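Tokens for Response regulator. Go.
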Amino acid sequence: MKKILIVDDEPNIVMSLEYTFKKNNFEVFIARDGQEALDILKKQLPDVIILDVMMPMVDGFATLEQIKKDERLKHCKVIFLSAKNKEKDIEKGLSLGANLYIVKPFSIKKLVDQVHELMQ
């Protein structure tokens, strides 16, 4: 079973993504901020990480920087899912090593398709 880590502080987004990915046969892990995500990543190695940018404690950019330093997580695909839609934010996310940067509001169906594509 493929594993996905959803990192977002908006409960409605977390709930809808969790439900959708479980229906698509993923094992789902949830973190409400970057620090919680990094704690989960010490024990779990997901195939895909969906990461919000604006979160309490540790933001998405800082979280991705930590992920990229960890050899065990090299295979993880990272998708930023953020309301930050300025070109400089998107460029920063991709330059830090994200595989995709998707701007909110978003289509859940399209996101699921993009996750499947990334894992090919």
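Residues 11-23 form the longest helix (13 residues).
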